[in-house]
Amino acid sequence: MELAEFKAAADRWLDEQATELAADFEGIGTLDQQLEQLRKVMRLAYDAGFMRMGWPERVGGLGGSNLLRAYLGETLTARDLVEPGIYSMPEVLAPTVIDYAPAELAADMVPRLLRGDENWCQGFSEPGTGSNLGALACRATHDGEGWRVDGQKVWTSLAHYAQRCVLLTRTGTPESAHRGITAFFVDMDSPGITVRPIETMHGVAEFCAVFYDGVFVPHDRVLGEVGGGWSVAMDLLPYERSTALWHRAAYLQRRLEQLIAAAPAGSLDPMAVGEATELVWAFRARSRATQRRLTTGETLGPETSIDKVLVASAEQAVFDLVAEGLGSAVTLADDPVSQRWRAEFLYSRAATIYGGSSEIQRNIIARRLLDLGADR
Amino acid sequence: MDASERELFAHAIRRATEDRSGVDLDEALDELGWVAALAEDRAAAVAILFEAQGEANATSSALDQVIFAALGVPGLDPASVVLPPLRSVQAPGRFDGARVVIQGLGTDALARGDTVIIVARGDAGDEMLVAPVSALKVEEISGLDAALGLVAVSGELERASPPAAALIDWGAALAAGQLALGHELVGNGRAMLELARQHALERTQFGRPIAAFQAVRHRLAESLVALEAAAALLNAASDDSSPVTAAMAKALAGRSARTVARHCQQVLAGIGFTTEHSLHRFVRRTYVLDQLLGAGSVLTRHLGTEVLAAGSLPAAFPL
Fold first, then answer.
1. pTM above 0.90, yes or no
2. What is the spatial distance between Cα A71 and Cα A88, in angstroms, rounded to a whole number?
3. Chain A partners within 8 Å of B185 (Cβ)
4. ipTM, two decimals
């Protein structure tokens, strides 16, 4: 199906199903409510075929270009039907499982994710290794037909809701750095896993600390090669900075538009509004170019670090304006709509931190795109 | 142009801009069929030439050609077009009874030519006049960037009767010129970034190249981010052919080039502050181009004012 045809069909369906798809809560809701809403939208969109478009047939998809997925997320976000951060997680995790899991496993698991029956999480960061991913310490050791995992992960989004986890572990020596890492696809109900949600300043406990204590993982759950986890991670990260970010562009555009409509006259500086609009448009343009490169089959790489730096700048510019134009909503009011502005303002403060900090992105740009050599 | 034609054309244009400028570059562009390329695939022709021209710090009459082509008057011989005054986007002519008062800028090609085109603001819309260059006062400007060869154009003319053409779409001509200058600013920025990058790799302090210091690396990385953001928006604006997006893209390109100038000046430090080094040429050009066809700050403030007045954002280009 072509993009134009898909757009028309998806929007027609969304118009027709508007009542059924709408959230039954106001404002940001609780995480339970957000996830219930996400499951409902994904199931309906999957059963109607839209959520299957743009995914390969071998994992229950209906084929077609990645642009179809990009557009579906864009229009769901623009209609305020899903929270783009949690909606976009399959954009990051499903391609990894499709590319690296045994074929039968991918064919069994991916449809559950796309249909909203399951949530998956991504176990990368550790207390001792935030930016320095190559130094991770969570250990996996051989044990008969599989592996035993011991260690701790942190900042694992939705671990308390997730049925599966794409987990990075150390299988080489502690000094093996990025060469001694292995990726696994772990069932979150495995004995020995303890999940503790982290309370964050924006008030939505979506991140968790996850403890692995002698957790058994069968050998057929290795993603890619033993010792090849670094390339799994490196292939995953550009996905985190492509289709998911196009969805985020739609979100920023919508929230900026809502701010402009809601801000009292005279509360916003025209210069700041102009600058934020230009930044959102530039990010959108950059992300669109990335989408088009994906469509032609290009492999994404370090240049997506530019997209990540841009989305963080655009997001903070938009929410800096929110703090001005909707100052009382952000600072004082406690109604659901104000609470949502406040939570999203606070979340925007983390935009330069999560998913690889802006400093790490600049390091990648300096070394890989500007060829400035090693930084020590 | 398909991808391979585009690559060949870009290569030829780049070679021409590397060692020619002004009249020489115009001759080379004629031989390369640049005007035909402009007619066939404006977005590609403009992006390729103006980025290359910016990177080489070269000048040509291409801006006049772009604006002339976008005016789209059939049967008119190509000529230079008077540009708005510094910082402004308004057509440079204004009607005062039966006379037209002209106040604007011109390229060095305008000063060399015989005929000039002036767009003037009328009550019913913008009208176009064609006049001999000799009918106007044309003064050379040295200013911040003498090598750019800008001239100040002023004077008064009789209103043509009947008008030389029906109403003219100055907005479309302005947008085409803004995109061209945006690409030139990006090219100009890429040249500064490359100069700073080379210096950072060669200059050694405390026993290692300064490129090894994160403070330096991050300035250069920020410069690349700024340029790629501007380049992406310029390309989207070309696809979109909306004057609002073109103005945004030009404003952002100016802001990005100024960011790059600041970071690269800092990285190039002492040597970059001398006239022995070529950085100063690009810094000068950045600040002048940012002020032409609407200063970046003017365009950005105007956008914000319009958005606030409408209570909504402009239509965005689709996926």
1. yes
2. 12
3. none
4. 0.96
